[in-house]
Amino acid sequence: MLKSAKIVLVLLFLLNACAKKPQPAHLVVFDQVVPFLAPVGKVIQSPVFGSAVFDNPILFETLQDPKNNSITKLVVSGLKDKALETKINADIQAIYIRMLSYVKPSLLPYRGALEKIPAGSTSSVQISFSTPFNFNNLLSILGTAIYEFAPKKGSDNPIRVMIQESLNYDLTTGHLLTIADLFTNDTNIPELLNPKVSEFIRLNSSDYMDSDSMMFMYGNGYMVQVRPFKGIQGDQVFLLSESGLQLIFDYRTPEFDTNLWATLFEIPLYSMRSNFAADKRFLSDVSPFEYPIVNHRFLYDIDYKSMSTSNREATIGTVRWNFSTRYQDGLDAFYMNRMTANQQASTQWVASLHIPDIIYLSNYQYAHKLGKFTLIDSYISVSTSVWGIYIPKYEMFDANKKIIPLKDIFTKDYDFEAVVTSKLQQQIAYFDKNLRLGEKKAEFRSNLSYTLSENALIMGMFAFSPFDKKPYAIEVYIPYADVGGNHLTIFE
Hints:
The N and C termini lie far apart (about 90 Å). By secondary structure, the protein is α+β, with helices and mostly antiparallel strands. Helices cover about 20% and strands about 35% of the residues. It has nine helices and 21 strands. The strands form seven sheets. The protein has a five-stranded mixed β-sheet with strand order 14-15-16-17-18, with helices on one face.
Protein backbone atom coordinates (compact mmCIF):
# COMPACT_ATOMS: atom_id res chain seq x y z
CA MET A 1 0.00 0.00 0.00
CA LEU A 2 2.82 2.35 0.84
CA LYS A 3 4.56 1.56 -2.44
CA SER A 4 1.44 2.32 -4.50
CA ALA A 5 0.96 5.63 -2.66
CA LYS A 6 4.48 6.66 -3.62
CA ILE A 7 3.76 5.83 -7.27
CA VAL A 8 0.59 8.00 -7.18
CA LEU A 9 2.53 10.93 -5.71
CA VAL A 10 5.19 10.64 -8.41
CA LEU A 11 2.52 10.58 -11.13
CA LEU A 12 0.80 13.64 -9.66
CA PHE A 13 4.11 15.48 -9.56
CA LEU A 14 4.81 14.64 -13.20
CA LEU A 15 1.31 15.67 -14.26
CA ASN A 16 1.64 19.01 -12.46
CA ALA A 17 5.01 19.61 -14.06
CA CYS A 18 3.58 18.92 -17.49
CA ALA A 19 0.58 21.18 -16.80
CA LYS A 20 2.84 24.21 -16.22
CA LYS A 21 3.13 26.21 -19.43
CA PRO A 22 6.76 26.67 -20.48
CA GLN A 23 7.88 30.27 -20.93
CA PRO A 24 8.03 31.27 -24.62
CA ALA A 25 11.57 31.14 -25.95
CA HIS A 26 11.61 34.84 -26.81
CA LEU A 27 11.06 35.95 -23.19
CA VAL A 28 14.02 36.97 -21.05
CA VAL A 29 14.88 34.52 -18.26
CA PHE A 30 14.99 36.32 -14.93
CA ASP A 31 16.81 35.51 -11.70
CA GLN A 32 20.09 34.74 -13.42
CA VAL A 33 23.02 36.68 -11.97
CA VAL A 34 25.06 38.08 -14.85
CA PRO A 35 28.56 39.11 -13.74
CA PHE A 36 30.48 42.09 -15.06
CA LEU A 37 33.15 41.06 -17.52
CA ALA A 38 36.65 42.51 -17.45
CA PRO A 39 36.90 45.64 -19.62
CA VAL A 40 38.15 45.03 -23.16
CA GLY A 41 40.77 47.39 -24.60
CA LYS A 42 43.37 49.62 -23.02
CA VAL A 43 43.92 49.39 -19.27
CA ILE A 44 42.88 52.72 -17.76
CA GLN A 45 42.89 53.59 -14.07
CA SER A 46 40.96 56.29 -12.20
CA PRO A 47 40.78 59.23 -12.15
CA VAL A 48 39.95 60.18 -15.72
CA PHE A 49 39.61 63.82 -16.75
CA GLY A 50 37.41 65.26 -19.47
CA SER A 51 38.77 66.31 -22.83
CA ALA A 52 37.59 66.91 -26.36
CA VAL A 53 36.34 64.13 -28.63
CA PHE A 54 36.33 63.78 -32.40
CA ASP A 55 33.39 62.91 -34.63
CA ASN A 56 33.75 59.54 -36.31
CA PRO A 57 33.72 60.38 -40.05
CA ILE A 58 31.29 57.65 -41.02
CA LEU A 59 28.18 58.03 -43.13
CA PHE A 60 24.61 57.18 -42.20
CA GLU A 61 21.89 56.61 -44.76
CA THR A 62 18.26 56.42 -43.68
CA LEU A 63 16.17 54.10 -45.84
CA GLN A 64 12.40 54.47 -45.82
CA ASP A 65 9.99 51.61 -46.30
CA PRO A 66 8.33 52.26 -49.70
CA LYS A 67 4.98 51.12 -48.34
CA ASN A 68 5.11 52.89 -44.96
CA ASN A 69 6.98 56.17 -44.45
CA SER A 70 6.77 55.62 -40.67
CA ILE A 71 9.24 52.76 -40.95
CA THR A 72 12.92 53.52 -41.53
CA LYS A 73 16.21 51.73 -41.08
CA LEU A 74 19.85 52.75 -41.02
CA VAL A 75 22.83 51.86 -43.21
CA VAL A 76 26.38 52.61 -42.06
CA SER A 77 29.34 53.18 -44.38
CA GLY A 78 32.80 54.72 -44.32
CA LEU A 79 34.77 52.06 -42.44
CA LYS A 80 38.00 50.66 -43.87
CA ASP A 81 37.09 47.22 -42.56
CA LYS A 82 34.28 46.23 -44.93
CA ALA A 83 33.64 42.96 -43.10
CA LEU A 84 32.94 44.96 -39.92
CA GLU A 85 30.79 47.40 -41.86
CA THR A 86 28.76 44.47 -43.22
CA LYS A 87 28.43 43.01 -39.72
CA ILE A 88 27.13 46.28 -38.25
CA ASN A 89 24.55 46.62 -41.03
CA ALA A 90 23.54 42.99 -40.54
CA ASP A 91 23.05 43.65 -36.80
CA ILE A 92 20.87 46.66 -37.60
CA GLN A 93 18.90 44.59 -40.11
CA ALA A 94 18.34 41.88 -37.50
CA ILE A 95 16.86 44.44 -35.09
CA TYR A 96 14.73 45.85 -37.91
CA ILE A 97 13.29 42.42 -38.80
CA ARG A 98 12.71 41.59 -35.15
CA MET A 99 10.85 44.86 -34.61
CA LEU A 100 8.67 44.20 -37.68
CA SER A 101 7.72 40.81 -36.24
CA TYR A 102 6.39 42.35 -33.03
CA VAL A 103 3.25 43.58 -34.81
CA LYS A 104 2.05 40.11 -33.80
CA PRO A 105 1.21 40.48 -30.08
CA SER A 106 2.14 36.84 -29.43
CA LEU A 107 5.76 37.64 -30.32
CA LEU A 108 6.12 40.68 -28.07
CA PRO A 109 8.85 40.11 -25.45
CA TYR A 110 6.88 41.75 -22.63
CA ARG A 111 5.42 39.39 -20.07
CA GLY A 112 1.66 39.76 -19.84
CA ALA A 113 1.34 41.52 -23.22
CA LEU A 114 -1.43 39.22 -24.41
CA GLU A 115 -3.43 39.93 -21.26
CA LYS A 116 -3.42 43.67 -22.01
CA ILE A 117 -3.91 43.55 -25.80
CA PRO A 118 -7.41 42.37 -26.77
CA ALA A 119 -7.55 39.47 -29.21
CA GLY A 120 -8.12 40.51 -32.81
CA SER A 121 -6.65 44.00 -32.37
CA THR A 122 -5.33 45.65 -35.52
CA SER A 123 -1.72 46.80 -35.33
CA SER A 124 0.52 49.55 -36.70
CA VAL A 125 4.18 50.35 -36.09
CA GLN A 126 6.70 53.18 -36.37
CA ILE A 127 10.38 52.19 -36.54
CA SER A 128 13.38 54.52 -36.48
CA PHE A 129 17.11 54.42 -35.75
CA SER A 130 19.39 57.09 -34.26
CA THR A 131 23.09 57.42 -33.38
CA PRO A 132 23.26 59.29 -30.03
CA PHE A 133 27.03 58.72 -29.67
CA ASN A 134 29.47 58.70 -32.59
CA PHE A 135 32.83 59.81 -31.19
CA ASN A 136 36.38 58.57 -30.52
CA ASN A 137 35.97 55.26 -32.40
CA LEU A 138 32.78 54.40 -30.49
CA LEU A 139 29.33 54.15 -32.02
CA SER A 140 26.00 53.78 -30.20
CA ILE A 141 22.96 52.92 -32.30
CA LEU A 142 19.43 53.00 -30.89
CA GLY A 143 16.50 51.34 -32.60
CA THR A 144 13.03 52.40 -31.46
CA ALA A 145 9.69 50.86 -32.40
CA ILE A 146 6.31 52.14 -31.23
CA TYR A 147 3.28 49.94 -31.79
CA GLU A 148 -0.44 50.65 -31.56
CA PHE A 149 -2.86 47.79 -31.11
CA ALA A 150 -6.41 48.99 -31.75
CA PRO A 151 -9.19 46.81 -30.29
CA LYS A 152 -12.09 45.83 -32.51
CA LYS A 153 -14.39 47.98 -30.38
CA GLY A 154 -13.84 51.49 -31.73
CA SER A 155 -14.57 53.09 -28.36
CA ASP A 156 -11.59 51.42 -26.68
CA ASN A 157 -8.29 53.28 -26.65
CA PRO A 158 -5.42 51.62 -28.52
CA ILE A 159 -2.74 49.84 -26.51
CA ARG A 160 0.69 51.40 -27.09
CA VAL A 161 3.93 49.44 -26.82
CA MET A 162 7.55 50.59 -27.13
CA ILE A 163 10.56 48.42 -27.90
CA GLN A 164 14.12 49.78 -27.85
CA GLU A 165 17.31 47.96 -28.72
CA SER A 166 20.86 49.29 -28.69
CA LEU A 167 24.18 48.40 -30.30
CA ASN A 168 27.45 49.80 -28.96
CA TYR A 169 30.60 49.19 -31.00
CA ASP A 170 34.32 49.66 -30.73
CA LEU A 171 34.92 50.56 -34.37
CA THR A 172 38.59 49.59 -34.24
CA THR A 173 37.78 45.91 -33.66
CA GLY A 174 34.01 45.49 -34.00
CA HIS A 175 33.71 44.47 -30.35
CA LEU A 176 30.19 44.90 -29.01
CA LEU A 177 30.61 46.74 -25.73
CA THR A 178 29.29 45.55 -22.41
CA ILE A 179 28.67 48.07 -19.68
CA ALA A 180 31.99 47.10 -18.03
CA ASP A 181 33.92 48.40 -21.06
CA LEU A 182 32.82 51.93 -20.25
CA PHE A 183 34.69 52.26 -16.97
CA THR A 184 38.23 52.24 -15.66
CA ASN A 185 39.72 48.89 -14.74
CA ASP A 186 39.69 49.75 -11.03
CA THR A 187 36.02 50.77 -10.94
CA ASN A 188 33.60 48.82 -8.77
CA ILE A 189 30.66 49.18 -11.14
CA PRO A 190 27.87 48.16 -8.73
CA GLU A 191 29.19 50.61 -6.11
CA LEU A 192 29.30 53.38 -8.74
CA LEU A 193 25.98 52.83 -10.52
CA ASN A 194 23.59 51.19 -8.04
CA PRO A 195 23.31 54.20 -5.69
CA LYS A 196 22.53 56.42 -8.68
CA VAL A 197 19.81 54.09 -9.92
CA SER A 198 18.42 53.65 -6.40
CA GLU A 199 18.27 57.43 -6.00
CA PHE A 200 16.40 57.69 -9.30
CA ILE A 201 13.92 55.14 -7.98
CA ARG A 202 13.51 57.03 -4.71
CA LEU A 203 13.06 60.45 -6.26
CA ASN A 204 10.60 59.23 -8.84
CA SER A 205 8.44 57.19 -6.54
CA SER A 206 7.74 59.20 -3.39
CA ASP A 207 5.90 62.11 -5.03
CA TYR A 208 3.44 60.16 -7.15
CA MET A 209 0.55 57.74 -6.73
CA ASP A 210 2.27 55.53 -4.24
CA SER A 211 5.77 54.69 -3.10
CA ASP A 212 6.09 51.86 -5.62
CA SER A 213 5.22 53.77 -8.80
CA MET A 214 7.47 55.85 -11.00
CA MET A 215 6.36 58.31 -13.65
CA PHE A 216 8.24 58.39 -16.93
CA MET A 217 7.63 60.67 -19.86
CA TYR A 218 5.96 59.57 -23.13
CA GLY A 219 5.01 56.24 -21.63
CA ASN A 220 1.82 54.55 -20.56
CA GLY A 221 1.59 56.29 -17.20
CA TYR A 222 3.65 54.59 -14.53
CA MET A 223 6.20 51.86 -14.21
CA VAL A 224 5.73 49.84 -11.06
CA GLN A 225 8.43 48.29 -8.92
CA VAL A 226 7.37 44.67 -8.45
CA ARG A 227 10.37 43.31 -6.56
CA PRO A 228 13.35 44.72 -4.65
CA PHE A 229 16.01 46.29 -6.85
CA LYS A 230 19.01 43.96 -6.81
CA GLY A 231 21.29 46.24 -8.78
CA ILE A 232 22.64 46.63 -12.27
CA GLN A 233 23.75 43.40 -13.93
CA GLY A 234 26.58 42.75 -16.38
CA ASP A 235 24.13 42.47 -19.30
CA GLN A 236 22.32 45.75 -18.57
CA VAL A 237 21.05 47.26 -21.83
CA PHE A 238 22.53 50.70 -22.37
CA LEU A 239 23.65 53.30 -24.86
CA LEU A 240 25.93 56.31 -24.75
CA SER A 241 24.99 59.92 -25.37
CA GLU A 242 26.91 63.19 -25.45
CA SER A 243 25.88 63.84 -21.85
CA GLY A 244 26.03 60.46 -20.17
CA LEU A 245 25.13 56.80 -19.92
CA GLN A 246 21.54 55.82 -20.67
CA LEU A 247 20.08 52.66 -19.15
CA ILE A 248 17.02 51.09 -20.75
CA PHE A 249 14.34 49.79 -18.40
CA ASP A 250 11.85 47.47 -20.11
CA TYR A 251 10.97 43.78 -20.38
CA ARG A 252 14.61 42.95 -19.52
CA THR A 253 14.37 44.67 -16.12
CA PRO A 254 12.71 42.21 -13.71
CA GLU A 255 12.34 44.68 -10.83
CA PHE A 256 9.85 46.82 -12.78
CA ASP A 257 6.66 46.43 -14.71
CA THR A 258 7.09 49.20 -17.29
CA ASN A 259 3.57 48.74 -18.70
CA LEU A 260 4.72 47.65 -22.17
CA TRP A 261 6.96 50.69 -22.56
CA ALA A 262 10.72 51.23 -22.64
CA THR A 263 12.13 54.11 -20.64
CA LEU A 264 15.61 55.59 -20.59
CA PHE A 265 17.29 56.61 -17.35
CA GLU A 266 20.37 58.76 -17.93
CA ILE A 267 23.30 58.81 -15.52
CA PRO A 268 25.01 62.15 -16.22
CA LEU A 269 28.60 62.00 -17.37
CA TYR A 270 29.67 64.54 -14.75
CA SER A 271 28.57 62.19 -11.95
CA MET A 272 30.98 59.47 -13.10
CA ARG A 273 33.60 61.41 -15.06
CA SER A 274 36.59 60.23 -13.00
CA ASN A 275 35.61 56.59 -13.66
CA PHE A 276 34.36 56.92 -17.23
CA ALA A 277 36.98 55.60 -19.66
CA ALA A 278 35.01 54.80 -22.82
CA ASP A 279 36.08 57.94 -24.69
CA LYS A 280 39.76 57.13 -23.98
CA ARG A 281 39.95 53.32 -24.11
CA PHE A 282 39.45 52.71 -27.82
CA LEU A 283 41.60 55.46 -29.31
CA SER A 284 44.08 54.15 -31.87
CA ASP A 285 47.09 55.35 -33.83
CA VAL A 286 45.58 54.01 -37.06
CA SER A 287 42.21 55.43 -38.06
CA PRO A 288 39.52 52.83 -38.86
CA PHE A 289 37.79 55.29 -41.21
CA GLU A 290 37.97 55.84 -44.95
CA TYR A 291 37.63 59.60 -44.50
CA PRO A 292 39.84 62.00 -42.51
CA ILE A 293 38.88 63.04 -38.98
CA VAL A 294 37.90 66.71 -39.11
CA ASN A 295 35.27 67.70 -36.56
CA HIS A 296 35.70 67.85 -32.79
CA ARG A 297 33.67 68.92 -29.77
CA PHE A 298 33.47 68.62 -25.99
CA LEU A 299 31.15 66.25 -24.16
CA TYR A 300 28.59 67.57 -21.66
CA ASP A 301 30.38 66.74 -18.41
CA ILE A 302 29.65 69.86 -16.33
CA ASP A 303 27.34 69.61 -13.33
CA TYR A 304 25.40 72.85 -13.68
CA LYS A 305 23.03 72.04 -10.83
CA SER A 306 25.58 71.69 -8.04
CA MET A 307 27.62 74.81 -8.75
CA SER A 308 28.26 77.32 -6.01
CA THR A 309 26.65 80.72 -6.27
CA SER A 310 27.01 84.06 -4.53
CA ASN A 311 24.96 87.23 -4.70
CA ARG A 312 25.45 90.65 -3.20
CA GLU A 313 24.20 94.17 -3.71
CA ALA A 314 26.11 97.40 -3.29
CA THR A 315 25.48 101.10 -3.83
CA ILE A 316 28.32 102.65 -5.81
CA GLY A 317 27.96 106.39 -6.14
CA THR A 318 24.23 106.82 -6.54
CA VAL A 319 23.61 103.56 -8.38
CA ARG A 320 22.58 100.22 -6.98
CA TRP A 321 24.57 97.26 -8.33
CA ASN A 322 23.76 93.56 -8.19
CA PHE A 323 26.75 91.21 -8.35
CA SER A 324 26.28 87.47 -8.83
CA THR A 325 28.71 84.66 -9.53
CA ARG A 326 28.35 81.00 -10.34
CA TYR A 327 31.30 78.66 -10.33
CA GLN A 328 32.36 75.04 -10.11
CA ASP A 329 33.27 73.73 -6.68
CA GLY A 330 37.01 73.56 -6.14
CA LEU A 331 37.73 76.45 -8.49
CA ASP A 332 41.28 77.74 -8.03
CA ALA A 333 41.61 80.89 -5.90
CA PHE A 334 43.19 82.63 -8.88
CA TYR A 335 39.88 82.61 -10.73
CA MET A 336 37.88 83.62 -7.67
CA ASN A 337 40.15 86.66 -7.32
CA ARG A 338 39.81 87.31 -11.03
CA MET A 339 36.03 87.48 -10.75
CA THR A 340 36.33 89.95 -7.87
CA ALA A 341 38.63 92.11 -10.01
CA ASN A 342 36.16 91.87 -12.90
CA GLN A 343 33.39 93.20 -10.67
CA GLN A 344 35.48 96.25 -9.77
CA ALA A 345 36.43 96.79 -13.42
CA SER A 346 32.79 96.64 -14.50
CA THR A 347 31.79 99.41 -12.09
CA GLN A 348 34.65 101.60 -13.33
CA TRP A 349 33.80 100.93 -16.96
CA VAL A 350 30.13 101.83 -16.55
CA ALA A 351 31.05 104.96 -14.56
CA SER A 352 33.31 106.08 -17.43
CA LEU A 353 30.36 106.02 -19.83
CA HIS A 354 28.49 108.79 -17.93
CA ILE A 355 25.11 107.27 -18.77
CA PRO A 356 22.24 109.37 -17.35
CA ASP A 357 19.13 107.96 -15.67
CA ILE A 358 20.52 104.50 -14.86
CA ILE A 359 17.96 102.54 -12.87
CA TYR A 360 19.61 99.10 -12.76
CA LEU A 361 23.10 97.65 -13.04
CA SER A 362 24.27 94.08 -12.68
CA ASN A 363 27.35 91.97 -13.24
CA TYR A 364 26.90 88.23 -13.65
CA GLN A 365 29.92 85.91 -13.93
CA TYR A 366 30.06 82.21 -14.62
CA ALA A 367 33.35 80.33 -14.18
CA HIS A 368 33.85 76.72 -15.20
CA LYS A 369 36.24 74.29 -16.83
CA LEU A 370 35.87 72.90 -20.32
CA GLY A 371 38.43 70.30 -21.24
CA LYS A 372 41.83 71.70 -20.26
CA PHE A 373 40.62 75.30 -20.22
CA THR A 374 39.01 77.53 -17.59
CA LEU A 375 36.43 80.02 -18.76
CA ILE A 376 34.99 83.12 -17.09
CA ASP A 377 31.90 84.39 -18.87
CA SER A 378 30.95 87.85 -17.66
CA TYR A 379 27.85 89.89 -18.53
CA ILE A 380 27.16 93.51 -17.65
CA SER A 381 23.55 94.61 -17.72
CA VAL A 382 22.72 98.33 -17.90
CA SER A 383 19.15 99.62 -17.80
CA THR A 384 17.86 103.16 -18.01
CA SER A 385 14.31 104.43 -18.08
CA VAL A 386 14.24 104.13 -21.88
CA TRP A 387 16.73 101.43 -22.92
CA GLY A 388 18.78 98.49 -21.72
CA ILE A 389 21.85 96.60 -22.88
CA TYR A 390 23.44 93.25 -22.05
CA ILE A 391 27.18 93.28 -22.78
CA PRO A 392 29.24 90.06 -22.81
CA LYS A 393 32.90 90.01 -21.80
CA TYR A 394 34.66 86.67 -21.96
CA GLU A 395 38.01 85.29 -20.79
CA MET A 396 39.62 81.93 -21.50
CA PHE A 397 42.67 80.66 -19.61
CA ASP A 398 45.12 77.85 -20.31
CA ALA A 399 46.49 75.40 -17.73
CA ASN A 400 49.08 78.02 -16.69
CA LYS A 401 46.36 80.60 -15.96
CA LYS A 402 47.30 82.67 -19.01
CA ILE A 403 44.61 84.34 -21.11
CA ILE A 404 44.52 82.82 -24.59
CA PRO A 405 44.16 85.43 -27.39
CA LEU A 406 41.59 84.64 -30.07
CA LYS A 407 44.23 84.20 -32.75
CA ASP A 408 45.93 81.46 -30.73
CA ILE A 409 42.97 79.07 -30.91
CA PHE A 410 43.31 78.89 -34.70
CA THR A 411 46.11 77.34 -36.73
CA LYS A 412 48.41 79.78 -38.49
CA ASP A 413 47.14 78.84 -41.93
CA TYR A 414 43.53 79.75 -41.08
CA ASP A 415 42.26 83.26 -41.88
CA PHE A 416 40.18 83.78 -38.77
CA GLU A 417 39.99 87.56 -39.28
CA ALA A 418 38.05 86.99 -42.49
CA VAL A 419 35.57 84.86 -40.53
CA VAL A 420 35.21 87.53 -37.82
CA THR A 421 34.66 90.26 -40.43
CA SER A 422 32.08 88.19 -42.29
CA LYS A 423 30.12 87.30 -39.14
CA LEU A 424 30.24 90.91 -37.94
CA GLN A 425 28.86 92.23 -41.23
CA GLN A 426 26.04 89.69 -41.13
CA GLN A 427 25.01 90.77 -37.63
CA ILE A 428 25.26 94.52 -38.31
CA ALA A 429 22.87 94.05 -41.24
CA TYR A 430 20.11 93.12 -38.76
CA PHE A 431 20.23 96.54 -37.07
CA ASP A 432 18.46 99.70 -38.19
CA LYS A 433 20.64 101.46 -40.76
CA ASN A 434 20.02 104.78 -39.00
CA LEU A 435 22.18 103.55 -36.11
CA ARG A 436 25.18 103.65 -38.50
CA LEU A 437 26.79 100.68 -36.81
CA GLY A 438 28.54 99.83 -40.06
CA GLU A 439 30.86 102.72 -39.29
CA LYS A 440 31.89 101.03 -36.06
CA LYS A 441 33.38 97.77 -37.29
CA ALA A 442 36.80 98.60 -35.87
CA GLU A 443 35.25 99.40 -32.48
CA PHE A 444 33.30 96.15 -32.49
CA ARG A 445 36.50 94.27 -33.32
CA SER A 446 38.52 95.98 -30.58
CA ASN A 447 35.83 95.08 -28.03
CA LEU A 448 35.64 91.43 -29.12
CA SER A 449 36.00 88.67 -26.55
CA TYR A 450 35.24 84.98 -26.88
CA THR A 451 34.34 81.83 -25.00
CA LEU A 452 33.70 78.18 -25.78
CA SER A 453 30.68 75.92 -25.47
CA GLU A 454 30.62 72.17 -25.96
CA ASN A 455 30.10 72.49 -29.71
CA ALA A 456 30.72 76.11 -30.73
CA LEU A 457 32.94 79.15 -30.47
CA ILE A 458 31.04 82.16 -29.10
CA MET A 459 32.20 85.68 -29.83
CA GLY A 460 30.79 88.73 -28.06
CA MET A 461 31.47 92.34 -29.10
CA PHE A 462 29.96 95.79 -28.70
CA ALA A 463 30.21 99.35 -30.01
CA PHE A 464 28.52 102.71 -29.51
CA SER A 465 26.19 104.05 -32.18
CA PRO A 466 27.16 107.41 -33.73
CA PHE A 467 23.41 108.12 -33.94
CA ASP A 468 22.12 107.74 -30.37
CA LYS A 469 25.41 107.19 -28.49
CA LYS A 470 24.12 103.96 -26.96
CA PRO A 471 26.12 100.71 -26.81
CA TYR A 472 24.97 97.81 -28.98
CA ALA A 473 26.12 94.24 -28.42
CA ILE A 474 26.53 91.39 -30.89
CA GLU A 475 26.99 87.72 -30.06
CA VAL A 476 28.06 85.23 -32.74
CA TYR A 477 27.95 81.44 -32.54
CA ILE A 478 30.35 79.56 -34.82
CA PRO A 479 30.01 75.75 -34.64
CA TYR A 480 33.36 73.99 -34.53
CA ALA A 481 32.21 71.98 -37.54
CA ASP A 482 32.03 75.22 -39.58
CA VAL A 483 35.71 75.88 -38.87
CA GLY A 484 36.96 72.30 -38.85
CA GLY A 485 38.85 70.73 -35.98
CA ASN A 486 41.99 70.70 -38.10
CA HIS A 487 41.97 74.53 -37.94
CA LEU A 488 41.47 74.76 -34.16
CA THR A 489 44.34 74.40 -31.71
CA ILE A 490 41.99 73.81 -28.77
CA PHE A 491 41.65 70.19 -29.91
CA GLU A 492 45.38 69.45 -30.14
